[in-house]
Amino acid sequence: MRFAALCALFAILSLAAPALAGGYDDFSDGEAALTNGNYELAIKLYTRAIRSGELSTEDLASASSGRGSACLETGRYRRALIEFDAAIRIVPEDPWAWVDRGQAIRLNASEAYFWVSRGFEYRELGQYEQEIRDFDEAVALYPLASFTWLYRATTFLYKGDYHAAIDDLDV
Prior knowledge:
- The protein is built from 10 helices and no strands.
- It is mainly alpha-helical.
């Protein structure tokens, strides 16, 4: 009887072990899955690690970048960009997050969303000339999309170039 109870307890604990894995275990396993090319598993593991609330600031940024890299490998460029943006917000001085973010933009550069998104990043940094160049790309890709003109006009307003803003709004 005692042996059967111990066996049952062992079986229950064995089944529960994956659920008891901590954020750092998931993070480490996510790194391994990414390295081995198991991108869907990497995304799951990084997500669990992020949601655990146990990661340090640097590891949280790395988990977001790792999840972004897995998304890049599976062709989910928009999702990858979101992940790299999150990593940059967490640790802005991480050069790899910026490099990976640039890769996501390059792979899907034909979509105005990426140029607009990066333009807003430049706005937050006060780099209006670079922001305008990115919005120029968005306008060139989607000249009939009013939001591209509006965003660029807003940047001209931030710069104090009211005539250029009016020209963009008078399309």
